[in-house]
Design brief:
The complex is a heterodimer of chains A (about 450) and B (about 725). With about 450 residues, chain A is mainly beta. In chain A, strands 4, 5, 32, 33 and 34 form a 5-stranded antiparallel sheet that branches. A 4-stranded antiparallel sheet of chain A has the order 6-7-8-9, with no helix packed on it. Chain A has a 4-stranded antiparallel sheet with strand order 10-11-12-13, with no helix packed on it. In chain A, strand 24 and strand 25 form a beta hairpin. The longest helix of chain A is centred in the first third of the chain and has 13 residues. In chain B, helix 2 runs parallel beside helix 4, helix 11 runs parallel beside helix 13 and helix 12 packs across helix 16. Chain B starts with a helix and ends with a strand. Classes of the chains: A mainly beta (about 450), B mainly alpha (about 725). Chains A and B meet through helix 2 and strand 3 of A and helix 3, helix 5 and helix 6 of B. Chain A: This is BTB domain-containing protein. Chain A: Pfam families: Beta_prop_At2g24240, BTB_2. Chain A: Pathway: Protein modification; protein ubiquitination. Chain B: Belongs to the cullin family.
């Protein structure tokens, strides 16, 4: 038969490969479609070569990827151009998977440091599900795709951005302060076109309200945000991602913590929303888990009843580790603490293993930020990120297993974010963020 | 260059787009459009995929995505309209075939178009929230073909007609049907549901409404169920062959509603073939089918259960209240057990051991067994019969199974204390006369009673067994001292020492024993009291037996096994030949009724009449004269003279037992009241009644009037008092 052999001519250079290799590209790719029996190309014209009008040097790298599953970029070749070619052949996913493996805090490598245009003081960094990210900076949001190409910057009409998040790789939601003329609030934008997709509104007593959107979280279909109106509208709003319609609003009277929440986290396994209102937004810390099916709190923790003293521990960030049924918190001295989510009598178990030397007061201080991936906990301190690995059932028994620090540094870390198999670290002094990834399948010894 | 000229340069805004050939987009689109036409005309072999893909890629890259997309929509719509026309033109049976073949072609074409426009799908469609090419192709097919006014109704009609023809026995092209329904499913679940499934269900509903009416008029119940089952299986089969799997619960629901749900009452109540006749005739298969079919509708099993319960209670009532049956208690209980076995088997074989049916069966039995107040006595008599002789030579498992069945009946009894009373009497008789067949069986039953009713229920029964054992030991010791002391000339004595309270003793039953016996008795008494100080022995002569060696006038020697009373009477005849009734009565001092009964069995039983009576008659009167029957003969050396015992209790005895039971219940009720009041302190009348009933129902069902009397008695004795304000409230006085 010999029909497995395929002769290609790419930009004048002949290639001979097999149908099996091309089929490796997957049904959604141009290469696999080209040899599909619908097109009757190969079976009739075995001897004839198929011409493809593209640059052969990139093709040879990509063909090698299809043959071996490994990506080797020759020195001097532009990564961006290679990605563009991959996009033409429809094998971007293959390239991405070859380039990086599933996130493992112990094997991370810093693959890029991206400098922004302005000076320091970025507000937040958020990872996108496909490995891109966005940085909120004053009233601007800079979006980077998975190849770290900057997209159209989103300018929010001079209102401050509080939080951002990706609904999907093509769509970001931005939470801003209100400005009084129905501007501000919350909206989603297409990252490639920069166009507004939905404006999310809060309606109470059949009246549209001006509101400041604080923290943000999203489930598969819904979007949640803490909202603070001008007069007595405090709470957590829920919207439908597809239509942008408000579904629900959990109101609370002023002085109650929900509307002031500075961190929301959706827990997909238990269908709960973690809501944390922390210093400096409020004097006391409140962490609770909301169930939107019953519209009530199923679990909550607060330090408001504790006695105030000089060296009192103030919770600065909180994150839930769903796999360990634990809420992890960090205080102003960078001590980690763990609270059990399964019962309601829950003191914080503080861990003292990781006590920092006191930072001098003059130095600008960034408090610890937390992020979670599975049973791995990431905690920033000064200019490093520490990785803690814990057994699946008890985060408090975790041990520190890695410290991530880029040698030249960018000063203290102001925010970290995990997503799309990448860890993003935003520095405070210089406007630069680092991308940490686990190296791809190529050249990694199998772990028994 | 001069400076002036430089100034002439106009500064223009920077242009992002370098103007290309203005007709570039038109030209490229033309190539792609032609290719789409060729694809639809099955002429794709001349096309270069790479070229087409590159063209589409370039159009999107150069921001002509919008043009490409709208062009695609227009071209495809055009083709859809064309296809619609050819499908419409197809005649009769060819209609579906044409639609199907066009659908297959469309799918293939769509696949190829999607391949060409893959880059647009990935980028433009994604960024501008458009419908992806494949979905777009399906939507256009749906709107222009499946839902075009001239095809929609015709398609539905054709499909429903085919299904109807298959239901009436014709063979249809299932493969074609499957392809068409699959097309509807592929076009989206709503298309399948709205354009086909809903009318299909309506049609099925109509069809089965008419058909089930016909069946009801022409078939009997079993036949109807068989047909219904067949229809149901056909519909399930239909779904697996050419409908969407999600339709199965819907179509079966329709069949269930029309064929079973709406005809349920009619079916179970069918004359001569309904549920009752199936139950009577043990039609396991038919019953099983009925259960399975009725199980499918919400109130189906309820219907079966209600009717079965009604029938059971009816037959049960007849059974337990039939005066004929009351004559033989063993037969009576056996009939109950047979009835239970019958229904157990039906429930096991036909009703899948359904718990609700078992409960219905149990409640029915409980209902009618307690209709007859003599049930406890009869059950005890049944056990007595089994343990006396019925279990001889029966394997251990069979014994267990009989006992288990008895326990099951026992569970139905409300007056368990009455059973206990009778059981104690019967057990005592068995033990004392040494008539129990198997000690193991006896003990096993007691263990069962214990697990059922608790320790208190059986402690006295167990005491009886202990007494029997200690008595054996005592006798060994006694005989040993006798053998040691003097030559053993007198009669052998076997004594059973019974603890007062454990045994159902009747006090006051005494008699004058013969002197030989009396001396032995005294010796035993001395022996016993010497080992157990501080005890009192009384002789229960009414319960003993004796073996006598008798030599009759004709020289025949026999060993007679008689009761103690009979022994006393017979010993009188050692000294006299002829005795008047009154003389016997005086000499023995046996209570009149027992004496009469003993004499009756000695003189009136044919073949075993050791005595003769003058005049000869069945009954004993006070003027009768008794003589030794010298002509007595028997095949056996040993002769057992049984006392004429009424096995069943006579009416006055029954009353007496009843009274005793009522008497025994009083302290139990009082104890319960005091226990409850001690815990609750203050309680109203109705609550006390209900709590007492609840506490005692394991043993018996207390009568509220009796409870009230007990409360009054407790008030009199100052355990309780009435509340001074609310007279309905009782207060506990510590």
């Amino acid at each position: 038969m010999g029909s497995d052999r395929v002769r290609l001519n790419v930009g004048g250079k002949p290639f001979v490969t097999s149908r099996t290799t091309l089929a490796n590209a997957g049904r959604g790719s141009m290469l696999a479609a080209m040899i599909d029996e619908n097109w009757d190309l190969v079976s009739e014209l075995v001897s004839e070569e198929i011409f493809i009008d593209r640059n052969p040097s990139y093709f040879s790298v990509l063909l090698d990827l299809l043959r071996t599953g490994e990506l080797h970029i020759p020195s001097g070749m532009s990564e961006k151009a290679l990605y563009r070619e991959a996009e033409f052949y429809g094998i971007t996913d293959r390239v991405r998977h070859a380039r990086k493996g599933p996130l493992d805090g112990n094997r991370l490598e810093c693959v890029a440091s991206i400098s922004g245009r302005a000076t320091g003081d970025g507000t937040a960094i958020r990872a996108s599900p496909d490995g891109g990210c966005c940085v909120a900076h004053g009233s601007m949001v800079h979006v980077y795709n998975w190849a770290m190409e900057e997209q159209i910057p989103l300018t929010l009409d001079y209102v401050n951005v509080n939080d951002v998040g990706f609904l999907n790789p093509n769509c970001v939601v931005i939470c801003t302060c209100e400005r009084g003329d129905r501007a501000g609030g919350m909206a989603s934008f297409n990252v490639t076109s920069g166009k507004l997709v939905h404006k999310f509104q809060v309606c109470h007593d059949d009246q549209l309200k001006n509101f400041t959107a604080g923290a943000l979280a999203s489930s598969d279909v819904h979007l949640y945000a803490s909202c603070r109106g001008r007069s007595y509208e405090y709470g957590i709003g829920t919207w439908d991602q597809a239509t942008g319609q408000q579904i629900n609003f959990l109101y609370e009277t002023p002085g109650r913590p929900l509307g002031d929440a500075c961190k929301l986290q959706w827990l997909p396994q238990s269908n709960l929303l973690l809501v944390a209102t922390l210093f400096p937004r409020s004097d006391h810390s409140f962490v609770s888990l909301l169930d939107f099916r019953t519209k009530g709190k199923v679990w909550s923790w607060t330090d408001s009843c504790q006695r105030k003293s000089a060296d009192e521990k103030i919770v600065m960030d909180a994150v839930a580790m769903e796999e360990c049924s634990t809420v992890c918190v960090v205080n102003q001295f960078d001590n980690l603490g763990f609270i059990d989510m399964r019962n309601s009598s829950h003191p914080v178990r503080w861990s003292h293993r990781y006590r920092s030397a006191r930072v001098s007061e003059c130095e600008e201080r960034c408090y610890s930020k937390l992020a979670v991936s599975g049973s791995q906990l990431f905690s920033s301190k000064n200019d490093s990120v520490y990785v803690f690995c814990s057994p699946d059932w008890d985060a408090a028994r975790g041990v520190q297993t890695a410290r991530l620090r880029k040698t030249e540094g960018g000063g203290a870390i102001s925010d970290i974010s995990v997503g799309g198999d990448s860890l993003f670290v935003l520095h405070n002094e210089i406007n630069v963020f680092d991308v940490w990834e686990t190296p791809g399948s190529s050249g990694i010894a199998e772990v028994l | 260059m001069s400076q002036a000229k430089k100034k002439n340069f106009k500064i223009e805004p920077f242009k992002h787009k370098v103007e290309m050939d203005p007709k570039y987009a038109e030209k490229t689109w033309k190539i792609l459009e032609d290719a789409i036409h060729e694809i639809y005309n099955h002429n794709a072999s001349g096309l270069s995929f790479e070229e087409l893909y590159r063209n589409a890629y370039n159009m999107v890259l150069h921001k002509y995505g919008e043009k490409l997309y709208s062009g695609l929509v227009n071209t495809m719509t055009q083709h859809m309209r064309e296809i619609a026309r050819t499908v419409e033109a197809a005649q009769g049976g060819l209609f579906l075939e044409e639609l199907n073949s066009k659908w297959c072609e469309h799918n293939k074409s769509l696949q190829m178009i999607r391949d060409i426009l893959m880059y647009m799908d990935r980028t433009y469609v994604n960024n501008f929230n458009k419908t992806p090419v494949h979905e777009l192709g399906l939507n256009l097919w749906r709107d222009n073909i499946v839902r075009s006014p001239r095809i929609r109704d015709r398609l539905l009609h054709t499909l429903l007609d085919l299904v109807h023809r298959e239901r009436t026995g014709e063979v249809i092209n299932r493969g074609l049907m499957r392809n068409i329904t699959k097309m509807l499913v592929d076009l989206g679940p709503t298309v399948y549901q709205e354009d086909f499934e809903r009318p299909f269900l309506d049609a099925a509903s109509d069809f089965y409404r008419v058909e089930s009416q016909q069946f009801v008029e022409t078939c009997d119940c079993a036949d109807y169920l068989r047909k219904a089952e067949k229809r149901l299986n056909e519909e399930i089969d239909r779904v697996t062959h050419y409908l969407d799997a999600k339709s199965e619960p819907k179509i079966t629901a329709v069949v269930e509603k029309e064929v079973i749900g709406n005809r349920m009452k009619l079916l179970v109540e069918m004359e001569n073939s309904g549920l009752v006749s199936m139950l009577i005739d043990d039609k396991y298969d038919d019953l099983g089918r009925m259960y399975n079919m009725f199980h499918r509708v919400s109130t189906g099993l309820q219907t079966i259960r209600d009717l079965m319960t009604a029938h059971l209670r009816d037959t049960g009532r007849q059974l337990v209240l039939d005066p004929e049956r009351l004559k033989d208690p063993v037969e009576f209980v056996q009939r109950l057990l047979d009835e239970k076995d019958k229904y157990d088997k039906i429930i096991q074989l036909s009703f899948g051991n359904d718990k609700t049916f078992q409960n219905a069966l149990n409640s029915s039995f409980e209902y009618f067994i307690n209709l007859n107040v003599r049930s406890p006595e009869f059950i005890s008599l049944f056990v007595d019969d089994k343990l006396r002789k019925g279990l001889k030579g029966v394997s251990e498992e069979d014994v267990e199974s009989v006992l288990d069945k008895v326990m099951m009946l026992f569970r139905y009894l409300q007056e368990k204390d009455v059973f206990e009373k009778y059981y104690k009497q019967h057990l005592a008789k068995r033990l004392l006369s040494g008539r129990t067949v198997s000690d193991d069986a006896e003990r096993s039953l007691i263990v069962k009673l214990k697990t059922e009713c608790g320790y208190q229920f059986t402690s006295k029964l167990e005491g009886m067994f202990t007494d029997m054992k200690t008595s054996r030991d005592t006798m060994q010791g006694f005989n040993a001292t006798l053998a040691g002391s003097e030559t053993n000339e007198g009669p052998t004595l076997a004594v059973q020492v019974l603890t007062t309270g454990s045994w159902p003793t009747q006090s006051g039953a005494r008699c004058n024993l013969p002197t030989e016996i009396l001396s032995m008795c005294d010796k035993f008494k001395q022996y016993y009291l010497s080992t157990h100080t501080g005890r009192r022995l009384t002789w229960q002569t009414n319960m003993g037996t004796a073996d006598l060696k008798a030599t009759f006038g004709n020289g025949n020697k026999h060993e007679l096994n008689v009761s103690t009373y009979q022994m006393c009477i017979l010993c009188l005849f050692n000294k006299a030949d002829r005795l008047m009734y009154r003389e016997i009565e005086q000499a023995t001092d046996i209570p009149a009724s027992d004496l009469q009964r003993s004499l009756q069995s000695l003189a009136c039983v044919k073949g075993k009449n050791v005595l003769r009576k003058e005049p000869m008659s069945k009954d004993i009167s006070e003027d009768d004269v008794f003589l030794v029957n010298d002509k007595f003969s028997s095949k056996f050396y040993k002769v057992k003279i049984s006392t004429v015992v009424a096995q069943k209790e006579s009416e006055p005895e029954k009353q007496e037992t009843r009274q005793k039971v009522e008497e025994d219940r009083k302290p139990q009720i009082e104890a319960a009241i005091v226990r409850i009041m001690k815990a609750r302190r203050l309680l109203d009348h109705n609550n006390i009644i209900s709590e007492v009933t609840k506490q005692l129902q394991a043993r018996f069902l207390p009568n509220p009037a009796v409870i009230k009397k007990r409360i009054e008695s407790l008030i009199e004795r100052e355990f309780l008092e009435r509340d001074s304000v609310d007279r309905k409230l009782y207060r506990y006085l510590a």
